[in-house]
Amino acid sequence: MMRGLQSQQPTHSLAPPPEVTIDCEKFESYFVARGISIDRTKVSKATKILRGYTLEERGVQDVVMDAEDERRRIVLLKRECCESGGGSGDAAAAVADFLPEEVRKRLEEDIGVSLKSDEAVVKEHRITLDYKYHTADYVLKQLLPDGMETPSAFEQVGHVAHVNLREEFLPYKYTIAKVIADKNPRIRTVVNKVGAIDSMFRVPNWELLYGDPDLKATVKQHGYSFEVDFGKVYWNSRLETEHKRLVDAEFKRGEVIVDAMAGVGPFVVPAVKTKACRVYASDLNPDCFEMMQKNVKLNKIEDSVKLYNMDARAFIKSLLAPSVGTSSGRAPEEMWASKLSEYERELKKFREKTADEKGNEDEKEKDTKKSEKKRKRLEDTSVPKPNWSTMTTSQGEDAHTPPSGATFDHIVMNLPATSVEFLDCLKHSFDRSTWANKKLPTVHVYAFRPPGHTDQDVISRAEGHLGCPIKNAKVFEVRDVAPNKAMVCVSFQITEEQAFGTP
After folding, report:
1. 287: burial class by Cβ within 10 Å (0-12, 13-18, 19+)?
2. What's the CA gap between 351 and 367, in Å, rounded?
3. If you ran DSSP here, which 8-state letter would residue 104 be given?
């Protein structure tokens, strides 16, 4: 049980919110734009000539139908063109003054339009701006009391938007949510974080402000899909860059990763997909564990991941325990290396055996891609690849318990509120015989750096929980979470003193 946390599950208030009606007529306005009437067959060429001078209004087309002649179109010009001139003659003069001589000359030569000799080509067009046109920021400024700032910032997870409204905004929370949903068509649900996070699994308490109470979503990060139930698990889309940074910058191809607080798998999936890593992953939250299983299958990486639903401290301790009772007397990585060698030998034999047959098939089958796919299918069927995720090292090994005697390259501990407290499980927990002649792992532990604290203060806090000095630590600032408060990642390689103690 984590210290200082009261309950396992968050308490949500997902009752239907009151319906909010916004007076849309309040936001209606219009302006008159001037433009040049062009034969519809020459519009494309005309807009290229007028590039930089046409109307630039979000959501407003700069080419419209000429109501007086359906064979023509009006290319609308910037608002500055309307700042002078009243009648049609003045309008033509204003357009002529607005456009440089070079542009006017090209219009006359290439399009056949002369602003001086044919004033009738200059037309005026009324443009109506309504509620849909205006931004959320503009609308909220009109709806909230004068002088109040506009809280239009939110985080989006699939169809769910979540906000963290300050106290002064709470009387207007349903209006704020309505505007956010109106201005973002993909959003169907808006929730607000309520109170402090007091659940064991660090899931916020949510209050429904708009839409339906469906908090299940599928989100994408760097091309990979993740199923998330926002009401049961923690997910922060703002950590997408950090997920990519750690995998790209710290992990090497083929390494073994231990993710002790894995959530729904935001480090697990890219580690396997982009770096061909193998991963031991665990999370104490059973809902995270269930969704991580789904995400592993969704991204087709089952063969490279071993998943557990355990406390992080017990999970790491299990992996670090000396290898005992193995059927072969070998630790997991040694057994995996042996299985790979055996697979490669068998594959080589199979390829030598079928080399002549392949040559004959190539003569008959000119489609080399089809032939290659057929050969690959035959290889996979005849010489199956070993499956790391289902590999066992001992008789009767429990699939719910990590294998003892494991070796690995990285340990990720991503629970910034309490991660450093789990470092104590690493002190003098490594088995000398298991790790003999092997490089000790690098730890990546996340923490908050409070206002007024330095990177060295964070390192000192980590040292206090580890119980040993930390050498050559790197501190990477992930993001600001509040004024002068940041989330950071402390990375350091385990030393022999930390791993084994004194000889």
Report:
1. middle
2. 20
3. H
Alpha carbon distance 77, 97 (integer Å): 12
State the Cα–Cα distance between residues 315 and 442, nearest whole angstrom. Answer: 17
Q: Which of 91, 76, 74 is nearest to 39 (CA)?
A: 74
Helix (H/G/I), strand (E/B), else coil: 190? strand
**CB 282, CB 260: distance < 8 Å:** yes
Question: If we measure between CA atoms, which residue out of 447, 411, 446 comes closest to residue 426?
Answer: 411
pTM: 0.79
Mean pLDDT of 367-396: 69
By C-alpha distance, which of 332, 310, 202 is closest to 260? Answer: 310
Helical H segments across 354-450, by residue range: 355-364, 368-382, 432-435
Provide CB contacts within 8 A for 311, sequence distance 6+: 284
Q: What is the pLDDT of residues 205-243, one digit of tens each?
A: 899 999 999 999 999 988 999 999 988 898 888 899 999
Please calculate the CA angle 341-344-347 and round it to the nearest 5 degrees.
Answer: 150
Let me know how long the chain is. Answer: 503
| Helix (H) and strand (E) counts in the chain | 15, 17
268-275 and 286-298 are packed helices; what angle lies between their axes, rounded to 10 degrees? 20
Q: What is the mean pLDDT of the chain?
A: 87
Integer CA distances (angstroms), 65 to 99, 104, 481, in order: 22, 22, 50
Instruction: Give the span between the Cα atoms of 427 and 348, in whole angstroms.
Output: 44
Separation of alpha carbons 194 and 177, rounded Å: 15
CA angle 175, 156, 299 (to 5 degrees): 155
Per-residue pLDDT, averaged over 192-211, amounts to: 81
Confidence class for position 304, pLDDT limits 50, 70, 90: very high
CA atoms of 15 and 94, how far apart (whole Å) = 58
